[in-house]
Amino acid sequence: MEQETTSVTVQGLLMQFLDRLEQERGCSPNTIRAYRVDLCQFFDFLISNGRISGYGADWQPDSIDPLIIRSYLAELFKAKRRSSIARKLSSLRSFFAFLEKLGLAKGNPAAEVSTPRLKKYVPIHLTVDQAFRLLGVPERDSVLGLRDAAILEILYSCGLRVSEVSGLDIDSVDFDGRIVRVLGKGNKERLVPIGRQAVKVLRQYLEASERLRQKNVSGTKRRPLFVNYKGGRLTPRSIARIIKKYALECGLSTEISPHAMRHTFATHMLDGGADLRAVQELLGHESLSTTQKYTHLTLDRLMEVYDKAHPRSE
Predict the structure, then answer these.
(1) Catalytic: 161?
(2) What is the distance between the terminal CA atoms of the chain, rounded to a whole angstrom?
(3) Is 125 assigned a catalytic role?
(4) Is the pTM of this model over 0.70?
(5) Is residue 51 among the annotated active site residues?
(6) List of domains in the chain
(7) Which of 165, 186, 271, 285 could lock 26 by a disulfide, CB 3.0 to 4.6 Å apart?
(8) Which listed residue (125, 147, 244, 262) is catalytic?
(9) Burial degree of 122 (CB within 10 A; 0-12, 13-18, 19+)
(10) Does the annotation mark 119 as catalytic?
């Protein structure tokens, strides 16, 4: 459906697109922020090359073609990693698909540009021994020590994203049923089992932190599960610092992060015989292909076992 374009500005289209991401696709604030940064960077490139005069200018569909997008990507290659460039191209494809639906573009010029070939990504993960060593580092004779122990336990037991851990409330955990209710990407809720050891430490932490929580009693009904020393909700950045601190204390790589704990959970589940689709559900992945990146790790282990055990493996 064609519609008048003379009154549609670059800024106006950007805001419409971001609103649609939030309202129709349920994207998280972090995802929307990433789209905004990607698109603004592209628009700034167009302004510097004279394709548009500014954010307040009317949108001119004919001003964008695959050639200018390739020029933009070539500029990015000077400073950005291939994975970042691939994400920015994906943002442009989504934006131009949105314009097509509005009748403001006759095609998707970004779809005609090839995605940069990415290097094979090997997720960082811990061995079982390393994971157990890390879980044993926090001193459990203080409130914050118990909190840190509980964070490590829930990351390893449930494989949650760091934002999901930060967003947990006390009533997100069914202690008797051993189930955690998680609000994931796109505000999609899922139920994840939690191990007995993690439940035990969580109970100890909640009992020990009662007085600390009274420091920050607000009008909201939500009661954060993990709090800082002032009683406020612990942020994802603070959780990442906690993980890195204990990783260093027990001699592990500085690259160990909450996401590495998520990778560890997935790898150990698959190593233990869990079905790939079950792990997909637990991780909250929309696509099975996202989960499949962990399978090569388990296949490597299987090949090692095979080579050692099978008489005709050589």
Answers:
(1) yes
(2) 64
(3) no
(4) no
(5) no
(6) 10-112 (1.10.150.130), 128-258 (1.10.443.10)
(7) 186
(8) 262
(9) exposed
(10) no
* Residues ≥6 apart with Cβ < 8 Å to 132: none
Which residues, listed in sequence order, are joined to residue 147 by a DSSP beta bridge? none
Asked whether the CA dihedral 205, 207, 208, 212 is positive or negative, the reply is positive
Indicate which residue of 51, 185, 223, 233 is catalytic.
Answer: 185
Full pLDDT tens readout for the chain, 314 residues: 444 443 589 999 999 999 999 888 878 888 899 999 999 999 999 999 988 999 999 888 788 899 999 999 999 998 888 889 999 999 999 999 999 998 888 889 999 998 888 766 666 889 999 999 999 999 999 999 999 999 999 999 999 999 999 999 999 999 999 999 998 887 788 999 999 999 999 999 999 998 888 776 665 678 899 999 888 899 999 999 999 999 999 988 777 999 999 999 988 888 888 888 888 888 888 777 766 666 665 656 555 655 666 555 45
Catalytic entry in 80, 140, 259, 293: 259
DSSP assignment letter at 297: H
